[in-house]
Structures are given as structure tokens and as C-alpha cells.
Amino acid sequence: MKAFFKVSGDLELIPNDPETQKYMLNRKEGEVIVAEIKRARNYENHKRFFSFLDLTFDMQEHFDTPEAYRRWLTMKCGYFSTIVAPNGNTIFVADSIAFENMPEDEFRKLFSTAIDVFLKELGKGLSRQEFMKVVDYD
Asked: Do 57 and 120 have their domain in common?
């Protein structure tokens, strides 16, 4: 089961969805539960990243499709796997950045690196500071 919690002001975990709340209500006081804790992805940040991809795709001339551009950018950021084919050739495959598969901290790192890669490779002389003003990012 995947459980979702909010952290309260006094650092208590509060169920954040009906399924988690139901599960917790069925626990006995003092019962120990083991869970892997990770920061949930920020949906607004996710949307900002895809807006960034749309905007920067329109600012470049090297890729014919947004999907090809996203894969290239993801790999340039270091998020890829390699496969050695039977003939010995190496194939590079962009890693998934799916919302549910990449933790928020890792996604933030990818996003920041993607901005840097875009500016270095395709940004036509824009500084990061100028770019951030243009796209209205903090």
C-alpha cells in the first residue's frame, strides 16, 4: 500500500488521502508500522517543467518533435541507461521521468540541470538570470 501524509506543525504525520486515513484508523495504538519515506513530487513543479520543455522546444531548431527534444535533454542531464546490443553497438535510452517514478529531490536536480544544458547548448547566449526572468521562474 502507498500511503500519503502531510507533516503538521508539530511534526506529526497526518493522513493525506481517504485510503491512508482508513488504513490508519484500523491500526491499534502503539502498533509499529514500517514505511519507506520519500518526498512526494510537486505537481506544480512538474507542470512548470513541461512548460519549460514547450517553451524551449519552440526556441530551438535542432529537433523535429517535442518527444525527441525531451529525450535528448534528459540524456544530456545524465538520466539515461545504456544497452549493449548483440552486435556490440551501445544504445542510449533516456530514463523515465514519470511523476510516480522519480522523487521530487531528483526531479528538482533534473530540472535545474535541464535549464543549464539548454542555456549551454541551445540558449543562444542567454544567461541563466535573463532566462529565468523570461520564463518567470524563481
From this structure: yes
What domain count does the chain have?
Answer: 2
Residue 55: which of 73, 41, 42, 43 has the closest Cα?
A: 73
Instruction: Give the residue numbers spanning the domain of 17.
Output: 1-37
Tens-place pLDDT, residues 58-84 = 989 999 999 999 999 999 999 999 999
Helix (H, G, I), strand (E, B) or coil at 117: helix
The Cα 21–Cα 17 span in angstroms is 6
Q: Do 68 and 92 share a domain, yes or no?
A: yes
Of 81, 132, 134, 79, the residue nearest 107 (C-alpha): 79
Eight-state DSSP code of residue 9: T
pTM of the model: 0.70
Do 49 and 25 reside in the same domain of the chain?
no
SS3 breakdown of the chain: % helix, strand, coil, rounded to 5?
A: 45, 10, 45
